[in-house]
Every structure is written in C-alpha cells, then in structure tokens.
Amino acid sequence: MDLMGPFPLTERGNQYILVIVDFLTRFAVVRALPNKYAETVAEAVSEVFADLGIPQTVLTDQGREFRNEILKEMAKHMQFQHHKITAYHPASNGLCERTNQQVLNILRGMVDGKDQYWDLYLKDTQMALNSAYHKAIGDTPYYAMYNRDLKTSDLWWTRPTSFGGPPDEDFITARTQRSKEVYEYVRDNLLRAADEQCRIRQKKSKDTTVLPGMRVFIKAVKKG
C-alpha cells in the first residue's frame, strides 16, 4: 500500500492517489484522495477492505499517513498485521513502486494535458492494470483474483446463469477446484519469477564479505 502525490488539484478537489496491490494476484486498487491526512487515508482503506476483504498483512512505508494511531487501531480492530518497510529503502516495497509507475504511465496517456480531470481516469486506469497480462503470475490480475476474465469493450465474457435456485453440489465442487487450481498456478509462477530475479541479482551483486580487522563505514539512519 502506498500514496502518490501531490498532483495538480482537480475540480473534485483531489490531489493524491492511494495504491493498494495484492501480493499474490497483483490485483491493484487505485483511489483519488483530497489530502493525505490519517483520517482520509484510513477511510479509503476501510472502504477497499469492505469491498475486497481484510488482508492478513499490510505493508506500507514510514509515512505519517500510515504510521499513526488511527491505522494502528484499525489493524487491531480488523485483525491484520501492519508492517512498515525500512526507512530510505523503497525497494522493500518494490511491487507497489512498480505499480505506481504503471499507474502514472497509463494516466499520462489518458489525461493528455487535462490535468484538472486526472481523477476521472482512475477507474479506467485500474481496469487497464488488472486486465493486462502479468508475466510473474502467468495471467491477468483480474482473472487471478476473480477466476474469470474482465469484461471490456473488446472482450465480452459470458457464462450460463441459473435462476432456478441455489447452485448444486457439482457446481460448487467444480468452482472450488478451479479456484484452487488458479491459485496454485499463480503461486508456482510467482515462485519461478522470484527464483529468476534472485539469480539475476546474484549475477550483479558484488562480494561484500567482511573479515575481522577490516575497516568499514557504518550508516546511521535517523528515525523521524
């Protein structure tokens, strides 16, 4: 979870963008906010959780909009763990950072100079993000999240609908099995992608072995 801004003030009074990304499915949610006060951010986060469910863990940076008593009480009340990344080390939240850049790239193409209306394009931006193929999971985030394709103007997804009562046991069993297969498929792809990224980092990394008696520099990070 991250916050971007400030951006040009829109006619609706918005200046910030709240970005929430599910680590497993890569499903992203973007919301326009008028400010980054703790109350405003907490209200937007609670609305997203009400729509999608409460996660087990939330990862944010050290910003005051996330490091406050309101979010602390929310975590306690909703029973999720709130972890904060290391200060001055944004790579710890690399997934959200990459999503932020994708959001900005899509918005630039849609807004096209109409800066006072950028918040009107956020829903289309979210749809574009979640309907695009993601190499790490081997499918689209929307499919990984909902087990079906997102209906767009170019692709109409249909499935038989029953109005004769509750679904039978065969349907429930098949749907449960299909959901399990989707998550196992996504998990396996994530593990393969993580292994590939680890190998790339190892090739680029330098030997930093420190032996007794060697002169080293220690970086002191102030907590603020």
Automatic annotation (TrEMBL):
One of its GO terms (molecular function) is nucleic acid binding. Residues 1-149 form the Integrase catalytic domain. One of its GO terms (biological process) is DNA integration. It comes from the Eukaryota. PANTHER family: PROTEIN CBG26694, PROTEIN NYNRIN-LIKE. This is Integrase catalytic domain-containing protein. The lineage of its organism: Eukaryota, Metazoa, Ecdysozoa, Arthropoda, Crustacea.
